[in-house]
Structure formats: C-alpha cells, structure tokens
Amino acid sequence: MGRSLAKTCTILLAITMGLVLSGCQNFQREPDNSLYLQLGERSGIANIVEDLLYLIVDDDRINAQFKGINVAQFHSNLTDQLCELSGGPCEYSGRDMREVHQSMGITNTQFNALAENLILAMEENNIPTAAQNRLIKRLLPMYPDIRHL
Amino acid sequence: MTRFFNKPRAVRVAPLLILGLLASPSAMADIGSRIWATGGVTSIEGSAGGGLVPWALLGSYASDEEWGGTVALSRAEVDDYTLSVTGAGINWNNRIEVTVARQTLDLDSLAFTLKDGFGLEQDELNQDIFGVKVRLFGDALYSPWGQWSAGLQYKRQRDFTVPEAIGARNDSGTDVYFSGSKVFFAAVFGRNLLVNATVRGTRANQGGLLGFGGDLNNGYEFMAEAGAGVFINRQWLLGAEYRQKPDNLSFAREDDWWDVFIAWVPDRRFAVTAAFVNLGDVATLTDQQGVYLSLQGSF
User: Fold this and answer.
1) pLDDT tens readout for residues B144-165
2) Which CATH number fits domain B2-298: 2.60.120.600, 2.40.160.40, 2.130.10.10, 3.30.70.3450?
3) Cβ-Cβ contacts under 8 Å, B35 against chain A
4) Pfam families, alphabetically (chain B) (predicted)?
5) For labelling alongside B269, which of B27, B43, B162, B259 has CA 20 to 30 A away?
C-alpha cells in the first residue's frame, strides 16, 4: 500500500517536473526583458557591478587578476554585457571574452570566487533568487571562454 | 590484527578534535571556494552525497587549488532500529575525496528475536567504511554535461556473528560506484535543480551491516540510486532520494530505501540535514520508517 503510493508519487513528481521544465523552455523562446527589469534596468545593473568591484578588490583569491584594469571602462563594459544578456537595450562593446582571458590562466577556484562575489553583490541589491539564477544561467556559456577550455 | 582494527576508535574521537579546531580562529582563515552547498552533505557511508546515496560531488568546499575536509554526526531512528554514523573526509583540489565512517546499528527489538531464535546475545552491529571518490571530469555547476565521479567503499563488519548466523558469506566487501551530478540553473520556478544518478556494484546486505553475499545470491549486482533536490535559495535544499538494494539472504527480504530530505546550509562551515526515511523491511522487521538528522562541519 505504502509502496505503491510512493511509486505513484514519484511518477507524478516526474511528470510535473517534465511539464515545468518544458514550460520554462517555452518561455525562453519569447523575446522578453523581464530579467532586465528584475535586475533594476541599466542603473540597477550598474549598482550590482559597482558592488561586485568592491568585493573583488577585497578578495585575495582574485584581486591580482584585476590589477591595472581601467576600472571605469571595466564597470561600463560589464554593465553593458549583463544588460544585454538579461534582455536589455544595451550592446557589449568590450573585447571577445575568450581573447580577454586567454593568457590569464583562470582557475576553477578563481571562477568560483567571482561567481560567489556576483551572487553576494546581487544579494546586496535585493535581487530575487529566481532572477539571480536566471542571470547566472545566461552567463554559464562563457565558462569555457573564461577558463580557456 | 586486533590492535589494528581497534584503531578506528580514533575515528570516533577525531570529529570532536576537528570540531574543536574549527572553533579556533587560526583555522577560520580560509575555507574552500566552491559555491555554497555544492559539497553535498555526508551520507551514511561517509562519502559526500545526500543521506542514503553518494553523489558525484566531492565533500567540503575545496576547489582546484585547495584542501578541504568535513566531519559529521548522523542518526537515523526508525521503528525498530537506530543507526548512528560518525564520519570524516578530506578533499584534495576537488579531485580526490577520502572518507572514513563508523556505523553503529542498535538492534533494539531485533535483539530479542536473535536471543530466542539463535541464542545470540547481541544488541548492536558495527561497521567501518573507508571510501575514496575521484572526480573524473566536469563541474556540477558549470559543465553542460555535469560532473562525473567514480568511487570505492571498503566496508568491514566488526560484529560478524549475527550476519554469519543469518547466512551472510563474508564480513567485508567493497562497493564500487559511478555517479553523475548536475545543477540546472533556474529550472523549477526560477530555482536551481540538483540531479544525481549513481550506479553501484555491491554484494552488501543492508549496506553491509548484515554482511556481504548470501545464500540467494553471492555475486556483485548493479543497483540504481538517484537523488534530486531544489534549492529554495542558496541555504535550503529540498529533495528526495532512492536507493535500490540487493536481496541476498533467504533469512529476510531486503527492500529498497528512499527518503525525503531538507538540508540547511547557513554557512559553508555548517550544514544540517533532516529527513524522513523509509528502509522497508529490515531483517524480518517490516516497514521501517523514521527520521534522520545529520550535522556536518566543513573546514
């Protein structure tokens, strides 16, 4: 009795998951700027990037990799990049990601450190969990370029 | 030999010593860099995973240039049994995980059956488990194909009288497993979904607590295990696990296990896991259900 109930629950859960996942994919196909709006548009994203830069400066795991950058330009480029990725009306005008990171030898430790700081910066700006996750999902395709894999 | 196998007594004390170290400020300096809750928790066999199933994730927060470790105390209380587990593990470069665990199964009501039926005076069974897990390739968060690991669990039963009396063939055995884990970002209502699948080759009866091999089957069999969980946020993971089991002994039917768990990871240093577990029939006592609680410290 308990066994068949458990099995039924598992099957129902699997079906529900399947529907939810396919539903999410359908949503993605429509061009939408809801993530951009949830991040607070370009000014909200600029605040996140600013907080991210402060966190990077204090983080001994990665701050050396950022030595000598033009902070204002980096801030504006990354803001444009996140704005564009989230569906906003911006265009990233910086250099190609693979090219930029080519000789930096970025380790998984450093990649994790940056991801952590981005999450903390979003939390400081009260970005909802779902929006944080959606932004990270859109950043994931850059992982092989940044790690130069 | 006896002296050697008494050594794991140190296993019981080690976590307390390490918990002491955790509290000292010098050890607080650096913890691993992996993202919160991506080290899983300590399973009942010591390997990083959920509660009942090892996952492809390696324990602690060590990333590719770091060392890390975990200590854990766990307890499962089902209708007629209590299982206590003390475990510890280290992780080098998020590449190799080495773990030890001591399991103590209090037989509670089975002790009477054993005394009346077999004339055996035994109220607990102890088992030591030495585990190694290697991350073969991939990263659970960042690789589109997920993270894949392979592991061994060498298990040694310390009280073989009872398992032998009910038909187990060996007092030790080695489980081998291959496991894949993947986090799908923003997959369920914007929440991250963690999925794990494990296949295990084993001869163990009730995970080894009732010995290895038996009269119905004495060879290795492949068992399927799985787990899935949703991160409500980065501190809370809600999920379920399933573990298929062999059925080697005619003495008593062995059932598959499953659990529903919630893990709270307030900080990289500390994790609490609570679960409802269903172990099915265990050594003639039917429908063993109950609660599971596990505390884990990481450094």
Assistant:
1) 999 999 999 999 999 899 999 9
2) 2.40.160.40
3) 112, 115-116, 119
4) DUF3034
5) B259
